[in-house]
Amino acid sequence: MHYQSALAEEIRASAARLLAEDVGPGDITAQLIPEDQWATADVITREAAVLCGAAWVDELFRRLDSRVSLSWHATDGDKLEAGQCFLTLEGPARILLTGERAALNVLQTLSATATATRAYVDLIEGTGVRLLDTRKTLPGMRLAQKYAVTCGGGHNHRIGLWDAFLIKENHIAACGGIQAAVAQARKLASELPVEVEVETFEELDQALAAGADIIMLDNFALEDLHVAVEINGGRATLEASGNVSAATLRAIADTGVDCISSGALTKDIASIDLSMRITRSYSV
After folding, report:
1. Tens of pLDDT along 132-189?
2. Is 267 considered catalytic here?
3. Does 62 qualify as catalytic in the annotation?
4. Is 218 a catalytic residue?
5. Catalytic residue among 27, 100, 195, 218
6. Catalytic pick from 12, 101, 135, 142?
């Protein structure tokens, strides 16, 4: 699968970037520690979270020193409790400390996305509505955050600009209307899904007449979402977007739409509070 191979390459590339920006030409503070000093360290979370980012941490320490062993006590997607140790590392003390910040940075960010996603998914449990992410990701972390969303139980919208059509207001204006835009999309790549963003019932009717596969109902009021579901009658997949929050999510899901998209899953996150503690230090 292209996505999986691209993600694997991204993990390798991002690990290299993380080390380059933090370690640079070398960790001078770590040089205070004797080369033959080894250590065991536990990584804990100070708050409840959903774990994500194990493969990045594995790759970071593989690049630093293959002698480091990592014992994961949880896997990506698992719920963690405050105070829980989810990773134990053992290896050269210098290396553990050199890789500490880069490892915690990626874990705290991806776990934040997975945690935010799980909280939203739990709110719409039982409705059958799918929670989608958007392209409002942190710069340079598109695939990583998309992966984190899936660890939290959400679903990916499109990965980028190449894997699906999303015809928005400016595309409609530039193409000369919804019908023309959808028709051109079918000519360009008939195998790809075509989604149209609409803001009014008139545009909804036009998108349905044009044969759009998916219709995004942008900033529709709750009562209008109910009406849109009736108008659609199951012809297209309906996606609700805009004004999505923990306070509104369940009510939106209860209107009968098929999916809800939210940029907050990836852009409005608060990093998870993590800590690495050396529990044993010894000479070899």
Report:
1. 999 999 999 999 999 999 999 999 999 999 999 999 999 999 999 999 999 999 999 9
2. no
3. no
4. yes
5. 218
6. 101
SS3 readout for the chain? CHHHHHHHHHHHHHHHHHHHHHCCCCCCCHHHCCCCEEEEEEEEECCCEECCCHHHHHHHHHHHCCCCEEEECCCCCCEECCCCEEEEEEEEHHHHHHHHHHHHHHHHHHHHHHHHHHHHHHHCCCCCCEEECCCCCCCCCHHHHHHHHHHCCCECCCCCCCCCEEECHHHHHHHCCHHHHHHHHHHHCCCCCEEEEECCHHHHHHHHHHCCCEEEEECCCHHHHHHHHHHHCCCCEEEEECCCCCCCHHHHHCCCCCEEECCHHHHCCCCCCEEEEEEEEEEC
Q: Which of 12, 135, 136, 250 is catalytic?
A: 136
pLDDT-derived band at 4, boundaries 50, 70, 90 = confident
Active site residue 146: no
Query: Is 168 a catalytic site residue?
Result: yes
Tokens of 174: 């530039």
Active-site annotation holder among 197, 203, 239, 258 = 197
